[in-house]
Amino acid sequence: MANRFTYQDQIFSVGDTINVHQTVKEADKTRTQVFTGVVIAIKGSDINKSITVRKIAIGSIGVERIFPLATPIIKKIDKEKSGKVRRAKLFYLRGRKGKQAVKIKDVEDKVKKALSKKKSKKLSTTKTKKSTKSRSARSANAKKTSRTTSRKPSKKASSK
């Protein structure tokens, strides 16, 4: 499958937000520049593999760069966060604007939601058990009180 790649024993996939550290030569100086964005495509195989990374620059302008993985220009790749997507190519992000252009479900958010659902289920089951006991106790008490109290005649019936 072409939606994952390995770089220096780290596994990256389409939808991940990554930092690509690359060396840039300007005149006689060399410096490291970081390009942060979302992996929208992975192409090729083995030594010809390349990734397309998209970021939103100043003024809501989308910038895409294609990085060949087998190049000495790339120093390292860091993963900021993992994304959960259902497609191998995320070209549909090109048509989006603003925050929607980079919005991808996080894997960590999914795990947090699952944990919170489990906690809420545990809490709701304990609450329902307590509430059913109190309801039955309330109904039993209501029956006892209705039996013991006698009805007083209404004012209309006694005045006639």
Q: What's the SSE blueprint?
A:
Layout: E1 4-7, E2 10-13, E3 17-26, E4 29-43, E5 50-57, E6 61-68, E7 74-81, E8 83-84, E9 105-106, H1 107-148, H2 155-159
Antiparallel strand pairs: 1-2, 3-4, 3-7, 4-5, 5-6, 8-9
Fold and architecture overview:
The protein is an alpha+beta fold and 160 residues long. It has a domain at 4-103: SH3 type barrels. It has 2 helices and 9 strands; from the N terminus they run βββββββββαα. The strands form 3 sheets. A 5-stranded antiparallel β-sheet has the order 6-5-4-3-7, with no helix packed on it. The protein has a two-stranded antiparallel ribbon with strand order 1-2. The protein has a two-stranded antiparallel ribbon with strand order 8-9. The longest helix has 42 residues, at 107-148. 11% of the residues are buried. The mean pLDDT is 77.
Overall helicity = 25-40%
Order of helices and strands: EEEEEEEEEHH
Number of strands: 9
Any low-confidence stretches, pLDDT <50, length ≥5? none
How is the largest sheet built, in terms of strand order? 6-5-4-3-7
Sheet-strand content, in percent, reads 35-45%
Shape: elongated
Helix/strand class:
alpha+beta
Q: What attributes characterize this protein structure?
A:
160 residues, alpha+beta, SH3 type barrels, five-stranded antiparallel sheet, 2 helices, 9 strands, 38% strand, elongated
